[in-house]
User: Fold this.
Amino acid sequence: MLETDYLCYHYPIAGQSHHPNFMLITDKILFNYQRCQRKSYLNLYGNPSEQSPLSDLMEKIHQDSYAYRQTILDRLAYQEPLYRPGDWSTGAQATLELMKQGVDCIANGVLLVDAHPFPQVSALSSVAEAIDFSGQEMPIWLLGDLDGVTLVSFPSLLVKKTGVSQLGDWYYQPIDIKFSKRPKRDYQMIGAFHAQLLAAIQGLLPDSGLILRDKGHYFVDVTKWLNLMQQTFFDCLLMLQNRTEPEVFISRHPCETCQWYDSCYAIASATRHLSLLPGVTATRYHALKQLNITTWEALAAANPVDLIPYFEATCQSHPVEQVTQAIVLQAQASLQNRAIALPTAEKQSNSFGLEQLPVAPIELYFDIEAQPELNLSFLHGVLKVDRTQTTPDNQPLETFHYFLAKNPEDEGLMWENFLQFVWEYPTAPIFHFCPYEAQEIKNLAKRYRTPASRWRPIIPRLIDVHALVTHNVVMPVESYSLKAIARSLGFQWRDPAASGAQCIVWYDLWLKTHAEITDNSSLENTSNQSSHESQNEYLASILTYNEDDCRATYIVKDWLVNFLS
Assistant:
């Protein structure tokens, strides 16, 4: 059996061959192009030595995706084409033979088409009768010269349907199995790509489908995506044929999981690319280029008022005047490597200030580690800062407490013990970073039907340090994540490679080894550090990271108090 998601990573045979006019475009290339044009280019022409290994989290996602795919396939009666890995031509021929036989379900098939105008194809649509396209009326691969271009796609399933095609009284519909809860746009675009190739093979353009985690089957109306998919395809083809290397643009969330991130970041950092400035999105960057603003210096010297007409469409919940002012100040702060207080008028409009930053006798700094795939919060860490007691160097006494669900079923008990601890300090402010912790308290209260008197009074005590920072100051950072801000202030995590994503992997590994542990106690805290979970390497790493997150939040809050003072 062949796992096509991984097969498409075999780029040495995708793209160009020894034949000077040959170009092979796979569904994986087109999928990557939608998400990042540069990634599709580098996968074909980049230096493989510049790629970083897949992160542990991405490896886990691939494994989970493969396992989910196998779970679905195990429920079906299907046949597979037989061929050697990488021999796509043989795989396509074997797939076609199964289609001609009228096999009900084909798994891991290969669709391969040498692109050319198709003489006659009909199109099925959920909203229209079958349409006959003939000759130049057929809107398939007629927007450019495709001589020497071969197209390959790997739908998870090809399902036999009743209807007249060149195969007989049946045709095939492509279905992709996706480890996703949503029918993302790029999935549906690839569904249209599968359908386009099937149109050439069977003479009928089918609709497509997805099998999604939790949501089951999702219908993809190919006619809605066909034109956009074709235009995207030709843009991708033109870029690859001309070897036009796309400009670097660093976008934090998608880029940080990419194997080319370090390579792209090195270029962006060396050139001080505008995308390294928080707030400069791809759309805003395009607007700035229209104004010939392409450097930090040019943006720092810009008049925010001049940016307003170009930024209005990019501002949703924030006044455009504040956005343009903040971006100019961001360039100035980064150039001067210093924090800059936002103007008083803006701070007042957001109702943030020192009154939201109390310095209390006892303060709690709170951070949650969660496993989203399990809908589970498995660790609540709290750093207690007691200013009524001091250390030998005259600093407030700090103690870290944690509440751990060693198994998913322990979450409720962990939640109760966390509440009990918080109520030991009923007036202490609870600082956290970003809205997640506040939202998760509400979620847990609902999930476990916690009486309102036990959790509602906690909500006003919660103080989001991230909101206080972003509404009061512009900092010389590349993002307003906790790590970026705290590191700019000199704080370092004990494990530089640790992250919330890595904690998901560690917890998953802990659950796999947990069956060997006979200790049935569900919760531990710092009074029993000799317990087996603190000795387990995975849990120890999670606890260390969570404690460092709490301490980093404390560092940022303390700095902000002094800065605003």
In short: Residues 537-564 form the longest helix (28 residues). The mean pLDDT is 87.
